[in-house]
Each structure stands twice: as C-alpha cells, then as structure tokens.
Amino acid sequence: MKGLNALLGAAGLAAFLALGEAVPRLGLVKAAYFPPTSRIAGAFADELADGAFWSALGDTLTGWALGLGTAAGAGIVVGVLVSVVPHLREATASTIEFLRPIPSVALIPLAVLLYGTELRSVLLLVVYASFWQVLIQVLYGVQDVDPVAEETARSYGLGTWARIRHVLWPTALPYVITGVRLAAAVALILAITAELVIGAPGLGSRIAVAQTSQAVPEMYALIVVTGLLGLLINVGARAVERRALAWHQSVRGEVAV
Predict the structure, then answer these.
(1) Residue 79: other Cβ atoms inside 10 A
(2) How far is CA 132 from CA 46, 54, 97, 158, 180, in A?
C-alpha cells in the first residue's frame, strides 16, 4: 500500500511538472511571468552552485531554529505555570485572547523600529507567532489531565513537581508535540516573510532581489526552495512526533477499549 501511494505521489508530481513545462510553451501564459519548468530547474541548479545561496539558507534556518526554540521553551513553561498555579489561568485568559489574534506581520513596523534589518527583527516576529501555537496546545493538554489520576497522585503524597512529571507531562506531551509541529511551520512562514518585507538576510530577501531585478526563473527557483524547506521541516517534525510518542495509542494505532 505504501509503495502504491509513493508511486501515485510520484506520478502526480511528474504530471504537475509536465504541466508547468507545457503551459508557457503553448502560450497559455507568458513565459516572462511563468517560465517553463526546465528554466526554473536550471535556475535552481545555478542557485545550488552559488555560495551566497547557502549563506542565505543558513540565515533563514538560523532565524527559524532560534525563534522556534525560544517560542517552544517559553510556551511550555508559561503554559504549565498558567495551568498549575491556582486562578492564574482565569486571570490571564482575557490577556491571552486579546494578544493571540494579533497578526505577527502587524508587528513588522515595531520590529524595524527596534532592530532594523537585524536577525532580532526576524526573531521577534517568529517568536511571537510561534509562541501561541505551543502555549494553546499546552493549555489544552493540561486541561485533559484525568482528575482521578491527579487526585490519586495527591493521595500518594506526590509533590507538585512529581505530579507534573508523572501525571501532567505524559498527558500533555501529545499536545505539546502537536504545538511544536504547528509552530515549526509558522516559524518558517514568518522567517521568510520578515526577510521578504524587512530585508533581513535570508531566502526571503533573495526572492525580493530576484523579483525587483526581473530574474523571474531565479525567483521561482527560490520559491521552490522555500517549499522544499517547509516539506522537510514537516517530515522531520512528523518523524520526531512518531519517535517521541511511540508509546501513545495515536502512533501505535491502537484503539482504546
């Protein structure tokens, strides 16, 4: 079954690439705006041979990794504290609901004002957007803790940290992993957006330069790179999820009786 799915996926990709080659050559769209797949592939190969491309890729991955790590750590810590400290969740609920819907791109003027085109501008946007993905999942995960298990742990004399480790964390971990996986995709989107709009070093700024210089095949090649990067991040996050939750029924495919 997996082999058939892989074959169908490869066939679909081949058909898509063939369509991308045929549409501009048949004159259905102007090649100046949408070049054939072969020209994009050539530009892609040229990018791979360019040292500046790898430097830009490194800048993007640096902003993504630092921002995601900071957001994940902060989201987990804040989420657990808000959940376990009495009345703190009720006290912060309105603040969270007010801040969470604010689009991260709306903070671009603030980021530019504070840090210009430095890496810190990218980190500000990435951390802000990714933090909420993790925090909300942690809050849901802690809320899902079985009250019977919690009371049993209390009756056996487990302290706060012991209950967090043995009761709260195993229940919340699937939610945490989901939050980090979602945050990983959001972090990449915001890193590219920040580079594209602010001009911070990275793939986004190279896309902007290619667009303004009318290097259309190179622009599409860089867009393809960002898509491949997102695919690799998602596949990696899925692999980490399967490994970290190998004990969980959602990964083992077991049905709870």
Answers:
(1) 25
(2) 38, 30, 10, 30, 10
